[in-house]
Backbone:
């Protein structure tokens, strides 16, 4: 996924994922990051390996984040994913 | 140094005294509070929970794994801030070197708790900075 239109679509999806009435969204954010070339770096939570997924861009390793899984997606998570994707577009 | 030994040494290091940012949960239709915590120095390192204490505890739990991932890829680790940064969005919260739970000023300043009033009270007792309102 790339290009101006798809970037807009991605941003719109991210906004939708942070709606207050949603109960999930982490997996969708992970899929969106993957579409922009981010890779799942491995578990970071030893007790609950599937509760916080780590994503990093292999060509721009300064771009990384965890995505909490389980429960609604706080707006900050969505905003940070959008920040990473926008940064990637300008790299 | 092999990876296993390096991982063992990493696990023995004390975590950096990063500043914790706790995000007040927005109102939800089901009434359940979901707190988010992240590090000011590592904004992408975040965890959530149904209480402030749970979110912060999870955050400290994932920090070693997060730092390990960065070291593995040669990403320089940020140094702990010497002073809290300004609020980014005006919606957050508490910034405490080492976290609220890690350095309470007194035994009563423990978590979890949810109400914003309680948050202010604990922040005052724990001598941490409250950003936003």
Residues:
């Amino acid at each position: 996924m790339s290009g101006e239109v798809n970037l807009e679509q991605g941003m719109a999806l991210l906004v939708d994922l942070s709606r207050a009435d949603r109960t999930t969204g982490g997996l969708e954010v992970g899929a969106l990051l993957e579409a922009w070339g981010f890779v799942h770096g491995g578990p970071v939570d030893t007790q609950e390996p599937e509760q916080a997924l780590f994503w990093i861009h292999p060509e721009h390793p300064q771009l990384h984040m965890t995505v909490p899984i389980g429960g609604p997606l706080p707006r900050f998570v969505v905003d940070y994913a959008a920040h990473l994707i926008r940064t990637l577009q300008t790299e | 140094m092999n990876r296993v030994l390096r991982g063992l040494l990493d696990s023995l290091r004390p975590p950096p005294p990063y500043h914790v940012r706790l995000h007040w949960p927005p109102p939800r239709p089901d009434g359940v509070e979901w707190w988010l915590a992240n590090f000011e120095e590592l904004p992408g390192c975040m965890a959530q929970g149904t209480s402030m204490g749970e979110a912060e505890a999870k955050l400290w739990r994932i920090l070693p794994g997060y730092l390990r991932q960065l070291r593995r890829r040669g990403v320089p680790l940020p140094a702990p801030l010497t002073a809290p940064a300004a609020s980014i969005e005006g919606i957050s919260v508490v910034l405490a070197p080492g976290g609220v739970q890690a350095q309470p000023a007194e035994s009563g300043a423990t978590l979890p708790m949810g109400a914003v009033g309680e948050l202010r009270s604990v922040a005052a007792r724990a001598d941490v900075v409250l950003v936003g309102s």
Q: What stands out?
A: The mean pLDDT of chain B is 68. Chain B is about 30% helix and 15% strand.
